[in-house]
């Protein structure tokens, strides 16, 4: 329930060990790298590293070789070591590739020949009714021949062209096309070609592999295709054999090249100075021994640990550190903003207050357990962090449901339990007029406690940062706390029938803090040793602007407090909605009554649960976070997490 302590670390070494250093760096669980641009251009000779990735083409060569044989490439840390340098790997891969290229070229030729034979066999299906020799047809000296297909509609239109010098012989016909030959003389071939083109004739070239009658050609092509397939199988076996003989090298090379290729993009975090490289980043202070041990065996490399704030050019990242209960609620904190390194982590406060408020506003034993079960399912089976939040607020809802005596809207279902425990009635009767009034007062009181706690946290943060204006003079500082407490004391005294607003002490505790809040900026500047007003700001302008800001402050205290009325309102609203569901259930008969009861509960859980969740989050963000949390930090992002991304 805090922010992890950080250490600034710098790696410095010779460029020849950069690849190995980056590989080891990506294996460090928690290392937040910084960009080297802060020094680039400021230190002579210092610049970010920018060069072409030498590992990508080598990795592509391996991938191409594996695709030729269907060999599965996978990282294999247990395989034999690959050559360490890109040059040595390039030489080894080149020798292996030469063996593959010859067989691969031959396989391409065989594959192309097999495809031609398959296409020819498919075409022969259209020539099956032909009882003439194909070679004789296309060897005519004075007659021109075209083979192809006509749309069926166009084939019927040929009767309109009986005056043209051509003959069309139909061989096969389906629903869309008619396949056949047309014959004409050489003198009018251009005119006839144009005529058939207007009828959407598609010419099909008869492959040179088709000879003789269609039946004889089919037998010849099938024999040729069988032989080609046998040759392809032999070539594939040889390729696979070569791949398996070199599998140890291939897997080890792939393992190393994949790691080097993946880490090459992390050179954006590396700065070079002559023949040296520098990598700067942050690690949790607790990880210093592990970090030093990881780089202990690497020569020409030094590791330097420094305080997190030793270099003002870098902003210390924030790594939240929470227990199992609060950790899922970091999701909500990150939605608002990451706390800076000097701030308090609000996750624990949010987790407890959110769980409490949701349970109060949505108290139902049965529905709460359903929400908790849904959360357990989403967390366990889907790995959703939001599911862990649902499980916690669902159990809170179930706990308050026990106090309210509500199970799926049935307000009297737990009466036997209460009687067995010695109670005459359930602890809280929501629909009682007295309870309704008390709920609203309780909601206001709970809001006051949470707002005061938020202001107190802001005071602590101001003191830690040595910010006097924030800690003492602001509306969220000591002045605001005194004013808020004095006004609340006066309001409570009025409710009790004895107003204290006429008391001079209470009146001064209301007026003086307002003046301090109004003058917070001049007071803060005076304590800091500066002029009361910034340059260019006139006293008149300050008074006008300060007046409207003060008016906004006073309104915000009222609205922040009254916003918590929704807590009591939703308690009553939930009970009312379930009363409607039960009324509709009683109006139905048989299975309709059961379906109405189930459907009504599902509707209320989905609709009101969603609305209550949003309203509680609104209270957290606007009525509590606004008092003490700025959220201007940067998240801690480990380079190891980046390397695991697809």
Automatic annotation (TrEMBL):
InterPro entries: V-ATPase_116kDa_su. Keywords: Coiled coil, Ion transport, Membrane, Transmembrane, Transmembrane helix, Transport. Residues 218-245 form a coiled coil. It is a multi-pass membrane protein. It is found in: Membrane. It comes from the Bacteria. The chain crosses the membrane at residues 348-377, 439-461, 473-495, 501-519, 564-582, 594-617. It holds the Pfam family V_ATPase_I. The keyword Repeat does not apply. Belongs to the V-ATPase 116 kDa subunit family. This is ATPase. It comes from Dysosmobacter acutus.
């Amino acid at each position: 329930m805090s922010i992890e302590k950080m250490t600034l670390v710098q790696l410095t070494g010779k460029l020849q060990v950069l690849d190995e250093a980056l590989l080891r760096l990506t294996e460090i669980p928690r290392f937040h790298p910084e960009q080297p641009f802060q020094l680039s251009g400021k230190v002579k000779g210092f610049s970010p590293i920018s060069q072409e990735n030498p590992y990508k083409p080598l990795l592509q060569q391996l991938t191409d070789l594996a695709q030729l044989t269907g060999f599965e490439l996978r990282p294999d840390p247990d395989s034999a070591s690959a050559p360490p340098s890109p040059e040595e790997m390039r030489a080894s891969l080149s020798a292996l590739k030469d063996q593959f290229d010859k067989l691969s070229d031959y396989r391409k030729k065989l594959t192309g020949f097999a495809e031609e034979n398959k296409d020819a066999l498919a075409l022969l299906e259209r020539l099956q009714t032909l009882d003439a020799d194909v070679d004789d047809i296309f060897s005519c000296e004075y007659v021109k021949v075209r083979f192809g297909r006509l749309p069926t509609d166009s084939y019927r239109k040929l009767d309109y062209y009986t005056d043209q010098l051509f003959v069309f012989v139909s061989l096969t016909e389906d629903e869309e096309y008619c396949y056949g030959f047309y014959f004409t003389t050489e003198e009018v071939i251009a005119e006839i070609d144009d005529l058939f083109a207007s009828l959407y004739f598609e010419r099909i070239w008869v492959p040179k592999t088709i000879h003789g009658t269609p039946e004889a050609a089919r037998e010849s092509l099938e024999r040729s295709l069988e032989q080609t397939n046998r040759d392809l199988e032999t070539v594939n076996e040889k390729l696979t054999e070569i791949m398996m003989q070199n599998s140890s090298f291939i897997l080890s090379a792939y393992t190393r090249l994949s790691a080097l290729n993946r880490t090459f993009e992390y050179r954006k975090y590396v700065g070079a100075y002559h023949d040296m490289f520098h990598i700067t980043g942050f690690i949790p202070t607790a990880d210093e021994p592990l970090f030093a041990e990881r780089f202990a065996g690497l020569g020409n490399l030094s590791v330097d640990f420094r305080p997190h704030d030793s270099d003002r050019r870098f902003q210390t990242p924030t790594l939240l550190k929470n227990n199992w209960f609060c950790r899922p609620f970091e999701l909500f904190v990150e939605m608002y903003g990451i706390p800076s390194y000097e701030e308090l982590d609000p996750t624990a406060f949010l987790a407890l207050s959110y769980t409490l408020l949701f349970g109060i506003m949505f108290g139902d034993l049965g529905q709460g357990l359903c929400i908790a079960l849904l959360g357990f399912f989403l967390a366990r089976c889907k790995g959703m962090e939001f599911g862990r939040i649902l499980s916690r607020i669902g159990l809170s809802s179930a706990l308050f449901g026990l106090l309210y005596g509500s199970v799926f809207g049935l307000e009297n279902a737990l009466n036997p339990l209460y009687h067995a425990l010695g109670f005459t009635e359930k602890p809280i009767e929501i629909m009682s007029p007295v309870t309704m009034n008390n709920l609203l007062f309780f909601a206001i009181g709970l809001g006051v406690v949470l707002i005061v706690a938020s202001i107190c946290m802001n005071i602590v943060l101001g003191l830690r940062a040595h910010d006097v204006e924030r800690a003492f003079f602001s509306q969220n500082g000591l002045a605001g706390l005194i004013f808020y407490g004095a006004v609340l004391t006066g309001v409570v005294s009025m409710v009790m029938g004895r107003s204290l607003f006429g008391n001079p002490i209470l009146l001064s505790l209301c007026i003086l803090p307002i003046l301090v809040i109004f003058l917070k900026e001049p007071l803060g500047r005076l304590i800091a040793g500066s002029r009361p007003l910034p340059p260019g700001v006139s006293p008149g302008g300050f008074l006008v602007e300060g007046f409207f800001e003060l008016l906004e402050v006073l309104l915000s205290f009222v609205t922040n407090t009254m916003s918590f009325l929704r807590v009591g309102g939703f308690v009553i609203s939930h009970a009312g909605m379930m009363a409607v569901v039960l009324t509709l259930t009683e109006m139905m008969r048989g299975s309709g009554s059961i379906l109405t009861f189930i459907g009504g509960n599902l509707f209320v859980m989905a609709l009101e649960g969603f609305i209550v969740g949003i309203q509680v989050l609104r209270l957290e963000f606007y009525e509590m976070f606004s008092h003490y949390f700025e959220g201007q930090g940067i998240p801690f992002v480990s380079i190891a997490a980046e390397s695991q991304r697809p």
